[in-house]
Amino acid sequence: MTTFHLSGFPRVGAKRELKFAQERYWRGDITEQDLQDIAKSLREINWRHQANANADYVSVADFTLYDHILDLQVATGAIPTRFGFDSQKLSLDQYFQLARGNKDQFAIEMTKWFDTNYHYLVPEFQLNTEFKANPTHYINQIREAKALGFTVKPTIVGPLTFLFLGKEKGQSFNRFDLLDKLLPVYVEILNALSAEGVEWIQIDEPALAVDLPSQWLEAYKTVYQLLSEKVQAKLLLATYFGSVAEHADLLKSLPVEGLHIDLIRSPEQLSAFTDYNKVLSVGIIDGRNIWRADLNAILDFVEPLKAKFGDRLWIAPSCSLLHTPYDLSVETQLQANKPELYNWLAFTLQKVQELSVIKTALEQGRDAVKAELIASQNAAETRKNSSEIHRTEVAQRLANLPVGADRRKSPFAQRIEKQNAWLKLPLLPTTNIGSFPQTSEIRQARAAFKKGALSEADYEAAMKREIEYVVRRQEELDLDVLVHGEAERNDMVEYFGELLDGFAFTKFGWVQSYGSRCVKPPVIYGDVARPEAMTVRWSTYAQSLTQKVMKGMLTGPVTILQWSFVRNDIPRSVVCKQIGVALSDEVLDLEKAGIKVIQIDEPAIREGLPLKRTDWDDYLQWAGEAFRLSYMGVQDDTQIHTHMCYSEFNDILPAIAGLDADVITIETSRSDMELLTAFADFKYPNDIGPGVYDIHSPRVPKPEEIEHLLRKALKVVPKERLWVNPDCGLKTRGWIETIEQLKVMVEVTKKLRAEL
Ligand code: GLN
Ligand code: ZN
Known about the structure:
Layout: E1 3-4, H1 17-27, H2 32-52, E2 58-60, H3 68-76, H4 92-100, E3 110-112, E4 119-121, E5 124-126, H5 136-147, E6 152-157, H6 159-165, E7 167-169, H7 179-194, E8 200-204, H8 214-230, E9 234-238, H9 248-253, E10 258-262, E11 279-285, H10 295-309, E12 313-317, H11 332-337, H12 339-343, H13 348-364, H14 370-385, H15 392-399, H16 412-423, H17 440-451, H18 456-477, E13 481-482, H19 494-499, E14 501-504, E15 511-514, E16 517-519, E17 523-529, H20 536-544, E18 549-555, H21 557-562, E19 565-566, H22 572-592, E20 597-601, H23 616-629, E21 639-644, H24 653-658, E22 663-666, H25 674-681, E23 687-690, H26 703-716, H27 735-755
């Protein structure tokens, strides 16, 4: 017997049923009971899929109406006290207020769940946080599943990861010191689950895959000693998203009954655990990607493990399947248009089938699943040899790039002189980050065009009208460097993916990003090339309308990579450089067409950083090269801008400077220019445009606020190097506030300019 289990399942449903139910509930269109009923039916469907695939345990306690870390805050009583709610008697509306804010309190902050695109709600710990067990939510799921006849294994994030992921609020203290108070509450919760008759509880400790301070690392011993002693159920300690080989001795010494390791992210860590003497759960199907597995290849290395471990070998996806879309079989369009690609993919339901086949093969021999293995093998072989994927010209071009292809012809000091000579901009030039309000008319036009209800010519004309409108408004505002407004773009990555070779799109390939929000990443399946110009006609049209300088607008290679499902048959670095080279064709075409200020957005550069610091340099090196390749070959007097937001860059400033953009615009207003100070301390050499107002709100900034920020900026950045712009693009704003906000920005800039 080989136990097949899972760490978690997507919650949103095959067609985002949960999202629509949540949103209807928030609008008041359905009752709490309706929402709970829908959630319940989604859980049942999830469990049936797992059981039908022969999973030995279905996953419970992973389902949530918003976020599993918020649920854990509720279960441990650690909800932020500022809301004034009683965690033991939390209503559903209060639960959603924690997640979404209310009129008095801002929502609990969100941040990325390790290196995924899922966002969890960051626990707010205080020196006087009192924990209190409230396992109702988990118990209900267990009872529900058992009533339907399923054998369950609850999964809960462990105490060290939970504390580690939180933040200290209020008085200064170290949240680690809360551990002693937290542990008894964990014991109580876990025993409440045990009392429901569960044999195993999975405790996730993904924090083990990041650089943990030694104090935290050492605590694993005492924490798991205590939990193993006090908790009735058997504990499976799960790690994922990286290697834990360096902690192998520690992990093997813990008195838990089993360990789970991620062999997709880090196959080489297996050797550190082959002498483990308890249950070893191996993550052998990728929970983070959408590619069909090569089942024979997996069996080749799992069979010897099976021989060694016998029934102590468990098999599972590498991590929760939360990070993969639900069901490939609903992608009928993809199946019809790209049957080969369709055959190379596996979403959640296909992945559990793959595990089912592996389980059968391990228990009964490969012959018992001959047909499935042949199908898998065929898919792997066609993928290896497909000319849709492997374009020799792309590989050759990358291999034959001249040395220094990713470097500008001259250093910044010389370039900027040549640029200023024709740009003739005033001091503190004003500009925008790219997008202007994406009005409902724009979205309707796009939807109608996609449905075929609007002709291409009519759609094109509608977008051109929009561009003209944006240009005229910017002229009226007297901005210096204009943008065309990005009306024609649905999404900054999808737009380019649709125009580049090597990309494909799904219809229902949604993955939860946070709460009710899902993203549908493009699929990069083949070598990337640009068959024809993508943005030139829009940018040149915009330029034709005005005497002012029009800035071209592209999404950078790292961001495109980061927000896509990426092929796993070649390194990410190579895919990224291919995108960079493809973009360089666009940059040169823009330049040729007279668009000589070109912005290449890289908001996602920071989120690509590996979990472990030791891997940062390598990433920053190839990411930087890919970015620089995207402007390969431009003239000195062409001005390259980049834009970044969402994050801090203090610790990667050398790499940011290494991108060698002539101008960088960054989000800074909410941090009161703190970030800019870091750039200044670092002596960031090129031009810089710190955001002077927050674009997330319709609020019109007061002139004094912008003046304060700009004066602060002028103290640390030479006036010749400073630009003025909002924090980010304006696509989520309405027109009325946009005009008012930009008016203030330009007015204040002119006032300060007069003093310089
Ligand atoms: N150019 C994009 C815009 O203005 C940049 C978006 C972003 O940074 N996320 O919308
Ligand atoms: Zn931005």
